[in-house]
Design goal:
The chain is α+β, with helices and mostly antiparallel strands. It has ten helices and 16 strands. The protein has a seven-stranded mixed sheet with strand order 1-2-4-3-5-16-6, with helices on both faces. Strands 8, 10, 12, 13 and 14 form a five-stranded antiparallel sheet that branches. It has a two-stranded antiparallel ribbon with strand order 7-15. Strand 3, helix 4 (about 110-125) and strand 4 (about 135-140) form a beta-alpha-beta unit. The chain is elongated and about 80 Å long.
Length: about 400
């Protein structure tokens, strides 16, 4: 496809993609419950006459086989929302659309991802006679809790895959820009989930009890000191403690205290080391305080960092510069959030693009997972253009 043909396709499908985004936004179904969203996507596949399979409870994969030799490309979008009540306004005024469920909303932009991939699916089907190879349109369930990625990768594992591609809208970049930098782009994650077990008692006699709250506080202090000396210099591991709970009454020492949070990192081995250091510190600190410590099942490295393949990132950057220009294709700092697409890129070479959606004048720019997060719909055609151009560039590189 020529650049002009790609632009025409993106322009022709602009309204369609926006309608899809608004429809999915209204559904706003959290991980594992994307029944309406899945049904909507399935109907679009059927309307295009594409064969598809349900790879998990709600996850879907459609296949476009051109019948001609060429690259096998997997294009992915996630579909789930969050259990976050949605503000009726973004940063400056009323939203264009609202979730129909007041307890959930698309506070991370997965509605936009689904819509852009539906647009790409429609555009590539329309140009099937100009294409080569095989395309897998992958709509992943449960990205937020990671439940859908294993089944999707298992389904892809039965097929030939040369490269993978996905886009995440990003409030950290200005609207109208896109980043396809090589190397680490999003952080790996480990869960922090532990319970300190002590012995309850009267608040006036801590000597007759075993205070798990004091022990929990000591664990966090000691972890910070241990990391200074044990985390490799130049590597980043962040600790986000989001909950310390150990009783509700001012004069009662509780039996237990719980700590929850997460670690983030850009080097998987360093992340694993940080988890082990944390566990060792917790165990030894508990002994010092006559407590015991129990670790939850999520206290481990849950996913690796998102690492863009150097070769395919270069292909993407060159292609996008050609069609979008230097003002649109930018470099950006790695994002400390985590993504299940890390597992895709660990299995196959490819690119995870960050599509800017920050436009403060129009109210777009609230942080992800925030009730005021909103997507600048004007960027969706840019995302579609980028997807189609990446497809075209890989086809040309194939020969």
């Amino acid at each position: 496809m020529t650049n002009e043909e790609i632009r025409q396709q993106a322009d022709m499908l602009k309204d369609y993609v926006i309608r899809c985004r608004r429809k999915v936004h209204e559904f706003a179904e959290p991980s594992g419950t994307e029944e309406q969203t899945s049904a909507f996507v399935r109907k679009e596949m059927e309307d295009l006459g594409l064969p598809y399979e349900r790879v998990s409870a709600t996850g879907l994969m459609a296949v476009l086989d051109t019948g001609r030799p060429g690259p096998h490309m997997a294009l992915r979008a996630d579909m789930d929302a969050l259990s976050v009540p949605e503000s009726r306004e973004n940063l400056t005024g009323p939203r264009t659309c609202l979730s129909k469920n007041p307890a959930t909303c698309h506070a991370c932009g997965h509605d936009a991802h689904t819509a852009m991939l539906l647009g790409a699916m429609k555009a590539l089907k329309a140009k099937e006679d100009r294409l080569r190879g095989v395309f897998y349109f992958c709509f992943e369930e449960g990205e937020e809790d990671g439940r859908g990625v294993a089944d999707m990768l298992k389904a892809l594992g039965r097929r030939k895959v040369d490269t993978v591609w996905a886009i995440h809208v990003y409030a950290g970049l200005p609207s109208g820009t896109i980043c396809v930098d090589p190397g680490p782009r999003m952080a790996g994650a480990a869960g922090v989930e532990l319970t300190v077990v002590g012995k309850g008692g009267h608040g006036s006699r801590p000597d007759m009890a075993v205070n798990p709250v004091m022990c929990a506080a000591a664990i966090l202090t000691n972890v910070a000191m241990a990391w200074v000396n044990q985390i490799t210099a130049g590597e980043t591991v962040t600790l986000g403690v989001t909950s310390i709970r150990g009783g509700d009454t001012g004069n009662v020492i509780p039996d237990t205290a719980a700590i929850k949070g997460s670690l983030r990192f850009f080097n998987m081995e360093e992340g694993r080391k940080a988890v082990e250091v944390f566990k060792q510190v917790a165990e030894h600190t508990a002994v010092m305080n006559r407590c015991a410590v129990e670790f939850g099942p999520r206290f481990k490295a849950l996913c690796g960092p998102v690492i863009n393949d150097k070769r395919y990132a270069a292909i993407a950057r060159e292609a996008l510069l050609e069609i979008l220009g230097e003002e649109c294709v930018v470099s950006g700092e790695p994002w400390y959030a985590s993504e299940s697409f890390s597992r895709w890129l660990a299995a196959y070479p490819g690119v995870f693009a960050h599509l800017g959606t920050k436009n403060p004048e129009k109210g777009f720019g609230a942080a992800h997972h925030n009730s005021r997060f909103d997507v600048d719909e004007e960027v969706l055609s840019l995302g579609l253009t980028a997807t189609l151009k990446y497809v075209d560039a890989v086809q040309k590189k194939y020969g």
